[in-house]
From TrEMBL:
Residues 1-27 form the signal peptide. This is Receptor-like serine/threonine-protein kinase. Keywords: ATP-binding, Disulfide bond, EGF-like domain, Glycoprotein, Kinase, Lectin, Membrane, Nucleotide-binding, Receptor, Serine/threonine-protein kinase, Signal, Transferase, Transmembrane, Transmembrane helix. It comes from Theobroma cacao (Cacao). It is a single-pass type I membrane protein.
Length: 812
């Protein structure tokens, strides 16, 4: 309810507020001119009287030795930042902020000014400063006035007792882990408070994508309401909507997030443990649709160009790439996607058609639309006609087909779209269209080849071929004789080649530093394969001993499923594996490719498999399990993104994760799936192990690295719970993924680790790991994060949003 005093004397209320602030500063001025803070881990910030807020240097997560000059909630475990000064210029360790007679000055260790508070227009000098309990840092003058306050220069957050007028605005951060200025604003424009996106190159604003309301002032009052004040002084409550705020029991803040969502949050002042900021009010509720339904038709939308945006239940946009596209930056899914093939678009016929249509096929997604990128419309059109038109059009990247059931003849409307695709979004309730994405067939080359085109008008073609045949035939005889002579020489040299210990050849592959062993060498090293370490899908592993130069103990794997052909392909793939070097991969020492024998020689892992470690009698420590999970994630990220040739493991499970003497996790068998697929003609069944197999194995779709992401998600749940992924003992749910999501959705994550006190005492980390695992086991591969993103989530460098139900994927 609005106070009658405010209606009658609005300026009197403002005046009283100013006087109250001035009195507070004079009474609580705890920073004198000349006081300073240094940017280091031991620096004690300037706190408000109650200790609710602190002003000082806050370390930037993930960036060692860099700090923000900031204000944050000091009593909340995650130290939520509500204001920062140097968003564009992080301070190095050793930087200093000092209160001078003209205000605050931030300098780096070399004395260069990084930031300073805005000085007064006159010659008024500062006398002291104070961090107030409202979250406002105020600098007072010697004549009892204020020369500067943080509330007048907000960043992305507004607090109770703070106001925004026509001259102030909020600017989002660039990403969830970068405080640099982002691409969203909350500002006053032509009598309205609006949300809009800006062009990152020029800084110019696009049209608004949401209108908060008509007014001249946005007020976050002391009672906890966000209001808009009109020109006649009347107030309109915006937030919260359902329950009245209780500032005595809760902290409040409203923030324009990096993804463009403006949210009102609360946090209990007296937490019992495990709490987090709760969203009471969100605008817009569906940001993906807001960019379509509003006037904000320019700009690249919440997710960037060539993406699909889906608004989650918490209002946040979930960004994915369409089939045939991949993220420009795997670590930032909001930055747009790029087409996986480009060379086919370079050579188009003069009429805009292409002759390469036999290399393409279509992947369909329902409830997806790109409303602003069409360049051609077919009406009426059947699905076949729509596909054929897009297939033959060089410019067409996707065709949108309206539901054909609305017409009697089965035809509908077909929109052809060209790049860049903008404002793509998914909505199962309002979109009655199907997107048909033109993608390369799985067996098509990723880049276009340009073979020389034969000239049919060449009358001498047959004569040239005859002459070449004679020359080549003569040359072949000469080459055969030369080859025989050279082979004889090399055979003699090989027989005289020096040998190392135990008859092992001294030669090695110069490209990979791999040893080429004979079968006799390995038979002797393993005592005729006597000590078996284990059996797997690919063969038997035995322990062996080699000279000290190889590290003494080794693990020798005999591959059982190779057909006796393709020797060149086997060596090529072994070289690819041999060129991998990462601390979380088991190192390949050498190989044997002799007759019917194909063996691989690996470093020996002292502590066996993760399976034995997790499911043994003694439960591993919580911190040990977290370290192992992160190591596996980094190893997979290396295989997927950093190798010269991308490697998909296809059988991630605890049995294939080995532990060295310091319990560092190392992925084994990471090249065998690729080797077997390339060399085995009879491989037609599903690879992988029951419980870890991604759903797309059962579909007629090409496999990607996301099959490994799914398996990792299942294994991460096993690492969290120390339970196998299929266990009858898990109450009513025999599948770990089902039970884990049920516990997460009901808010009882601790039930997963009910006998693990160490894990139960770390609820924030438990919740984060659980959310990461659920993201990884999404049925729809597009929704699963990359392993690089997973690694960053586990390290805390990327915020983990609330995952959707993994079993309700968008149908392909």
């Amino acid at each position: 309810m609005i106070s009658p005093l405010y209606h009658c004397h609005p300026f009197l209320v403002i005046l009283l507020s100013v006087l109250w602030i001035l009195a507070t500063v004079q009474a609580q001025g705890n920073v004198s001119v000349g006081n300073f803070l240094s940017a280091n881990d031991e620096s004690i910030p300037w706190q408000s009287p109650s200790g609710d807020f602190a002003f000082g240097f806050h370390p930037i997560q993930g960036k060692e030795d860099q700090f923000l000059l900031a204000i944050w909630y000091a009593k909340i475990p995650d130290r939520t930042i509500v204001w920062y000064a140097n968003r564009q210029n992080p301070a190095e360790r050793g930087s200093k902020v000092e209160l001078t007679s003209t205000g605050l000055v931030l300098k780096d260790p070399k004395g260069r000014v990084l930031w300073r508070s805005k000085s007064p227009k006159d010659d008024t000098q500062a006398s002291n400063a104070a961090m107030l309990d409202t979250g406002n840092f105020v600098i007072a003058s010697r004549n009892s006035g204020n020369i500067w306050e943080s509330f007048k220069y907000p960043t992305d957050t507004i607090l109770p007792t703070q106001e925004l007028d026509a001259d102030s605005s909020l600017s989002s951060a660039l990403t969830d882990r970068s405080y640099q200025e982002g691409k969203y604003q909350l500002r006053f424009n032509n009598g309205f408070f609006i949300l809009n996106q800006i062009d990152m190159f020029t800084g110019k604003p696009y049209n608004n994508y949401f209108n908060l309301g008509n007014g001249s002032r946005l007020i976050f009052n002391q009672s906890g309401y966000i209001q808009i004040q009109s020109s006649n002084g009347s107030l309109l409550n915006l937030a919260p909507e359902n329950a009245p705020p209780d500032p005595e029991s809760n902290y409040y803040r409203a923030i324009l997030s990096f993804d463009g969502v403006f949210t009102f949050y609360s946090y209990p002042r007296n937490p019992s443990g495990g709490e987090s900021w709760s969203a009471w009010w969100i605008r817009p509720k569906d940001i993906c649709s807001s960019f379509v339904d509003s006037t904000a038709r320019l700009g690249n939308g919440p997710c960037g160009y060539n993406t699909i945006c889906e608004s989650l239940n918490n209002g946040r946009p979930n960004c994915s790439c369409p089939p045939g596209f991949s993220f420009l930056d795997e670590s930032n899914p909001y930055n747009g996607c790029k087409q996986d093939y480009t060379s086919y678009l370079e050579d188009c016929n003069v009429d805009g058609s292409t002759s390469e249509e036999d290399l393409f096929e279509f992947k369909s997604m329902q409830f997806v639309d790109f409303p602003f990128s069409d360049f051609g419309i077919l009406q009426p059109a059947t699905e076949f006609e729509c596909k054929q038109s897009c297939l033959r059009d060089c410019s067409c990247a996707v065709a949108i087909l309206q539901d054909s059931t609305v017409s009697e003849d089965g035809s509908g409307t077909c929109w052809k779209k060209k790049l860049p695709l903008s404002n793509g979004h998914v909505n199962r309730e309002t979109i009655d269209r199907t997107s048909l994405f033109k993608v390369l067939k799985s067996d098509a080359p990723k880049t276009k080849k340009n073979p020389a085109t034969p000239n049919p008008n060449d009358e001498n073609q047959d004569q040239v071929i005859w002459i070449l045949g004679v020359l080549l035939g003569t040359s072949a005889v000469f080459n055969f004789v030369s080859f025989a002579a050279i082979s004889l020489i090399f055979f003699c040299l090989y027989k005289r080649r020096p040998r190392d210990f135990n008859g092992i050849p001294s030669g090695s592959d110069l490209e990979t530093n791999l040893r080429s062993f004979t079968y006799k060498d390995l038979e002797q090293a393993t005592n005729r394969f006597k000590e078996e370490l284990g059996r797997g899908a690919f063969g038997t592993v035995c322990k062996g001993e080699l000279p000290s130069s190889f590290g003494n103990c080794v693990a020798v794997k005999k591959l059982d499923k190779f057909v006796q052909e393709g020797e060149r392909e086997f060596k090529t793939e072994v070289k690819v594996i041999g060129q991998t070097h990462h601390k979380n991969l088991v190192r390949l020492i050498g190989y044997c490719d002799e007759g019917e024998h194909r063996l691989l020689v690996y470093e020996f892992m002292q502590n066996g498999s993760l399976s034995s470690f997790l499911f043994g009698v003694l439960r591993p420590s919580w911190q040990q399990r977290l370290h192992i999970a992160l190591g596996i994630a980094k190893g997979l990220a290396y295989l997927h993104e950093e190798c010269s040739i991308q490697i998909i493991h296809c059988d991630i499970k605890p049995q294939n994760i080995l532990l060295d003497d310091s319990f560092t996790a190392k992925i084994s068998d990471f090249g065998l799936a690729k080797l077997l697929i390339n060399n085995t003609k009879t491989l037609t069944g599903i690879r992988g192990t029951k419980g870890y197999v991604a759903p797309e194995w059962f579909r007629n779709t090409p496999l990607t690295v996301k099959v490994d992401v799914y398996s990792f998600g299942v294994m991460l749940l096993e690492i969290i719970t120390c339970r196998r992924c299929v266990e009858i003992e898990m109450e009513d749910a025999a599948i770990l993924t089902d039970w884990a999501y049920e516990c997460h959705s009901e808010g009882i994550a601790e039930k997963l680790v009910e006998n693990d006190e160490e894990a139960r005492s770390d609820p924030a980390k438990l919740e984060m790991l659980l959310k990461v695992a659920i993201w990884c086991v999404q049925d729809e591969p597009l929704l699963r994060p990359s392993m690089r993103t997973v690694s960053m989530m586990l390290e805390g460098a990327v915020q983990v949003p609330t995952p959707p139900c993994p079993f309700l994927a968008i149908p392909l």
